[in-house]
What does this fold into?
Amino acid sequence: MATQHSRSAARAMMAPAVFLLLVWMLVPLILTLWFSTLDYRPLRGTFDCCEGLGNYVRFVSSSAFWDSILTTLQLLGGVLLITVVGGIGLAILLDQPIWGQGIVRILVIAPFFVMPTVSALVWKNMFMNPVNGLFAHAFKAVGLEPVDWLSQFPLFSIILIVSWQWLPFATLILLTAIQSLDSEQFEAAEMDGAGPFARFGYITLPHLARSITVVVLIQTIFLLSIFAEIFVTTGGAFGTRTLTYLVYQRVIESQNVGLGSAGGIIAVILANIVAAILMRVVGKNLDA
Amino acid sequence: MARAVTTQRKIVFTALAWGIGLMIFFPILWTILTSFKTEATAIADPPVFFNFDWTLENYQVVQERSDYMRYLWNSVALALGSTFLGILIAVPAAWSMAFVPTRRTKNVLLWMLSTKMLPAVGVLYPIRLILIQLGLLDSKIALIFILMLINLPIIIWMLYTYFREIPGEILEAARMDGATLKDEILYVLTPMAIPGIASTVLLNIILAWNEAFWTLTLTTVNAAPLTAFIASYSSPEGLFYAKLSAASTMAIAPILIMGWFSQKQLVRGLTFGAVK
Amino acid sequence: MTDTLRALMGATALTAVALAAQAETITIATVNNGDMIRMQGLTSHFTDMHPDITVEWVTLEENVLRQNVTTDIATGGGQYDVITIGTYEVPIWGANGWLVPLDDLGADYNIDDLLPAVRGGLTVDGHLYASPFYGESSMVMYRTDLMEAAGLEMPEAPTWEFIREAAAAMTDRDNEVYGICLRGKAGWGENMAFLSAMANSFGARWFDMDWRPQFDTEAWSNTLTFYLDLMTNYGPPGASNNGFNENLALFQTGKCGMWIDATVAASFVTNPTDSQVAENVGFALAPDNGLGRRGNWLWAWSLGIPASSDAQEAAKTFIAWATSSAYTELVAAEEGWANVPPGTRTSLYQNEEYLAAAPFAEMTLRSMESADPTSPSVDPVPYTGVQFVAIPEFAGLATEVGQLFSAALAGQMSAEDALSQAQELATEEMEAAGY
It folds into this structure.
């Protein structure tokens, strides 16, 4: 039973975080909203009122917009699929009694510590380069024509790179969950003659539901703002331009801050819609 | 018989786990190996793995061109600074959400998470203009605040879910014994919360260390961390794989080593309330 | 106030001034190209001469550098005191009043020694707004041994038809020798620099005199079709991701028969420590189609001072040093004549030692002299710039067009689709910009 005293104390303790995040969110957001109604192109020296909704109309009506939404969803879906499925597999594997478990776990989580720029550079140059990359060497060694990953399968390549970075995160969370699984329940099921697949489907998977939710939610938040991986590898070419990247191109490459700000606002709205849907779908999973 | 099967099983799983583990780790291993090669060996076909003349030449070239220690120090300062500040703000907030929940708690939490969805580049101009006004461009203080703010929602959430698992009865009991709020936090809660906080600290350090948009667009010299260091090695003229590898190794080594040593602590708290 | 106190305060103030003068720091933003890294390595020669100036280097990859410098100057951040910019930025930024005019770089600077084409590109309303560090045009670099083996001889001024013939003859896919390497990576300074210059020699241009985009013309269609045909049949795999650096690596490892790119590459491909083919490289002017224009560009990486800099005098001192003939001699003494930054001064091309050390010098000068930024194509244009159009919208627009052309090279769309989408995009962008 919380007392009045502890309630006000609680409020005071929350205040700094709420205040800071409010300022952090509102100040740039208001400025961005303002810019989005302006003809603000620094290189032209324009900072003129009033475009009204003109920037929004232009941003949404360009064909690049819908393509970028699609690309964003494909990237998101691809990475989530690979990391969740791969993460479950790896978590189950790491939960088995094996020799050198600690070392294997270290190997598996290592990519999580690599900064996105570095991992994109390494993958792009040392692996996916069609002439000097390791994949090209490997293809040639078995008599195949080397594949130019980043222009023939650009989105897939980026999904691969990003998945490599996030697989450890998914694995770690899912592993913790699997380790908390009640082994008695498992043994009982085994006694009852349930095969490994039945046991996975009826016991493991339901038990993992919450962690999968968490993985999907957190990764979605990070994946929607993926930037460095695209900047380094394809620069948005070959249908790898996500919404975030499109906004980047408008603001930095075209130096059209008004248009880019409108895009930024649209991106915020869409991201929040995605988040709201996610919360609705999976929210009850998070209730304690 | 049963024993033989288990051993056999263990061998199979061990082989499989090691195989996959090495595959996942391979890009990092390859980068480290390449950093000790000459540029010509770095692109040799067929590739060489260990039997080459190891050289430290690339590290020398990189060090000559950029002052690694300064970038490293900036990275450390930004990562630790933003984490310290973030924990200072997040712990009380998460504590009060976990132990004195109201009807609004869940919404506040969701709102906090939603601030993370602001696409950074969309607010680049506003942030820059504000920092210019404040004279804080290329300052560690500004970046520490920004990095703290972008990670704050995640760490509040992480701490919140961790705190919630601390049974309320213990607090009740402490209160019965006449413990004040201060005692409650210091002697009851803190010891139980340490693993969760440690894990949160580690995650935040990793996220701050690897942040590559703000650290690149708001810095020049004084606050430029390793993400800026690596940006000058991305595609120079001519052969560059070995130098790029050396720079990459230097940029990721500190965080990789920290991560390896602390992985047990990191894993322990990294559940986001997913384990009941 | 006593006299002592007053004297004391005066002394303190003086010390403060002296300290401020001593501690003057200039921050220099530059690209991670070889010549700039060499300049960074020679900093101590400058600071020995000027102990009152401290130099901080920010060396970044070109895209990151441009992003940071443009944002900084557009918001007046004042983060940099010296910036490395090109002939595209200088006219626009100079006209906006964002750069400090460099009319007084001292007597030793000898402004009349600058190559006229380069100087013209960096001058706005009679004021020099950036000082050229190195200048470049583009030319054909080819493997003399492969040409000989193919039984061909490269003319000094080849046609595009000959280039195609030679590329076909030199290509040997089994041994990873590709007849021709050209830029394919999307970007206004990457594939579009090459393609815009190439288009000029095909009689194509970006805009007509009414600023109407010209991608729907036959000349552009010819350009792109020829380029795609050349690259698909005789180019290396993955060409759509190749920029200058990737092609340089390919050429140095003996995988290209010909490479048409920046003249500065000449010193890299003839340098025996980096290049496996150093002994067998020949040079020729960029190809033409008999229309009176060659497919070569003109570019100068230059040092400028943002108006927002708070150390403008020190910055000027640095620029006067780094772009002087004395700096050229310093590099020659330290690293040899072949490594001096080329393409900025007439005197360099009259220097016997340089001409002896740099077999590519004559071709470089001829290429640079043959480029005309004010009349780049066959037909008249309303803009200046050979491989770019000096308007603020160009970088963004050309990068998007470059992505379309890059996708066409990757086989993801046809040449017609790429051109019609480029036309649509350019029309939309130009209308929005108020042309």
Observations:
- The longest strand of chain A covers residues 39-41.
- Chain A touches chain B through 100 residues (CB under 8 Å).
